[in-house]
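Quick one:
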Amino acid sequence: RSYAASEREVVRRVRIPNALPFLFSALKIGATLSVIGAIVAEYFGGPRNTLGVYITQNASLGRIPEAWSAVIIGIVIGVGFYLAILAAERLLMPWHVSFRQAAT
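Output:
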């Protein structure tokens, strides 16, 4: 405002860039936890061809390797979501201090 910037310019050049690190932190946490939440919600019912039902059925039938393979698939999905958000963060915030290299 001291530079006679309009409200739109203040939002675009100051507020949004300052909010992006917090937004991406929340997205990284939320994306990984959403995978966990979806799988746990499927434990209690749902279509028969879902990951949560597959894990519970195989674990209850004693097919532990199959159950663990489904758990690993869930891990891969969660890590994939995390990496996609990390790539978007690096693309949209190349100026952020966490991406700078330390001077040697």
